[in-house]
Amino acid sequence: DLYRKVFVFRKDPSDAYVVLRARLEQPLHNFTVCLRSYTDLSRPHSLFSYATRAQDNEILLFKPKAEEYRFYVGGKFVTFRVPEGRRDWEHVCASWESATGIAEFWLNGKPWPRKGLQRGYAVGATAAILLGQEQDSFGGGFDLYNSFSGELTDVYLWDTGLSPDKMRAAFQSLRLPPALLAWNSLSYEVKGDVVVKPRLRE
């Protein structure tokens, strides 16, 4: 149970990462991914990387620069421009719905304008899910200069689109529906220089 704990990725750049294990029975036609990050990186870095053998950027949350997030589904992406961070924790949630191709992006409990992405697509179920690196092949192919350095916590993946109330609840660390990946019952394996530490502040 990682309640009130964080992964600290100590080095920059880094070859370290964390493997997450989720039991997916079938392809995803809807999903929501949420996490909280704290970093002073200004270079590009990957936050959440979900690769299948067919598609390395099946789901990817990527920050190419301080005022931009990229959200990938099935190798295509949409960009969300954000205010440059105040060197504080940033909580992001991204959700996607195959039927409409609607991509939602929430930053610190507030929604950004919705965008269209990969309507009718299905996200493959046999996946390598990593924190801290961006996969260019299944479970590997890292570019160290896309690695994450800093602190990550509150990582979740649901096989549904969360309602606005639940998006805000995720930001506030309130009770959330059962998830494929849940921070409080995470099955994970650390590879390299990543340390689990208590959160310094709320």
Mind explaining what this structure looks like?
- By secondary structure, the protein is mainly β.
- The chain has a single domain (about 5-150, about 160-200), classed as Jelly Rolls, CATH 2.60.120.200.
- About 5% of the residues lie in helices and about 40% in strands.
- The chain has 1 helix and 15 strands.
- The chain has one helix at about 165-170; strands at about 5-10, 15-20, 30-40, 45-50, 60-65, 70-75, 75-80, 90-95, 100-105, 110, 115, 130, 150-160, 190, 195-200.
- The strands form 2 sheets. Strands 1, 3, 8, 9, 10, 11, 13 and 15 form an 8-stranded antiparallel sheet that branches. Strands 7-6-5-4-12-2-14 form a 7-stranded antiparallel sheet, with no helix packed on it.
- It starts with a strand and ends with a strand.
- The model has no long low-confidence stretch (mean pLDDT about 95).
- This is Pentraxin family member.
- Its cofactor is Ca(2+).
- Pfam families: Pentaxin (PF00354).
- GO terms for molecular function: complement component C1q complex binding; metal ion binding.
- Keywords: Acute phase, Calcium, Disulfide bond, Metal-binding, Secreted, Signal.
Record keyword descriptors for this entry.
4% helix; mainly beta; 15 strands; Jelly Rolls; 202 residues; PTX_dom; seven-stranded antiparallel β-sheet
Topology:
Blueprint (H helix, E strand, L loop, with lengths): L4 E5 L7 E4 L9 E9 L6 E7 L7 E7 L2 E6 L2 E6 L8 E8 L4 E6 L2 E2 L3 E2 L11 E4 L18 E9 L5 H8 L16 E4 L2 E5 L4
Count of structural domains: 1
Number of helical runs? 1
- Taken as a percent bin, the fraction of beta residues is 35-45%
Number of distinct beta strands: 15
Shape: globular
**CATH-assigned fold name:** Jelly Rolls
Task: Please give the alpha-carbon distance between the first and last residues.
Answer: 17 Å
Report the sheet with the most strands, covering strand number, pairing sense and barrel closure: 8 strands, antiparallel
Query: What's the rounded overall pLDDT mean?
Result: 96
CATH hierarchy, class: Mainly Beta
Order of helices and strands: EEEEEEEEEEEEEHEE
Structural class: mainly beta
Family: Belongs to the pentraxin family.
Cofactor: Ca(2+)
InterPro entries: ConA-like_dom_sf (IPR013320), Pentaxin_CS (IPR030476), Pentraxin_domain (IPR051005), PTX_dom (IPR001759)
Pfam families: Pentaxin
